[in-house]
Amino acid sequence: MKKTLAILASALSMSAAFAQTAAPAGASSAAASQTQVKARHEQRVEDRINYLHSQLKITSAQESQWNNFADVMRSNSETMGHLFEQRRANPNVSALDDMKGYAEITQAHADGTKKLVDAFDPLYTSFSPEQKKLADETFRRQPAEGGAHHRRSGKPAAPASDATVKP
């Protein structure tokens, strides 16, 4: 009996030791996962920048204006990524704080779009007629291709009130 208790006590102390070491590993794995998500997001932005550079046939004379535009894209991405990261880090907020956070994201998006327009205007003005046509087609098509990427699932949003749902 003493032998069994000694083995059980040993097993319990070993499992407690493993549990204590597992928590930091889990935390570091979550941090590694966040780093991977951030790296993938940054890569998607760079891929989009490279795609647009190629698609719009940016010339060497337009590189300076292009670089300004691309830098605004990167900055906007970083700002939005930071805001969404803050939102994910604090999932247990009140409805009011949730709305305030959403308003902050929406305002940052509007501000970023304005900055993007301001950077794109001189670039677009420098485009040849062919480049303008390419830009018009490329940006006109963008919402249809990228519009659904903000929704996390393919399901439509839930109705706002049960009163609107008919059995």
TrEMBL record:
Q: Which positions carry the signal peptide feature in this UniProt record?
A: 1-19
This chain's protein is named 2-polyprenylphenol hydroxylase
Keywords in alphabetical order: Signal
List the InterPro entries hit by this protein, alphabetically.
LTXXQ
Residue ranges annotated as coiled coil are none
Entry-linked Pfam families: LTXXQ
Annotated Basic and acidic residues bias: 131-143
Highest rank taxon of the organism: Bacteria
Species assigned in the record: Paraburkholderia piptadeniae
Residue ranges for the region (Disordered) are: 131-167
Q: Name one GO cellular component term.
A: periplasmic space
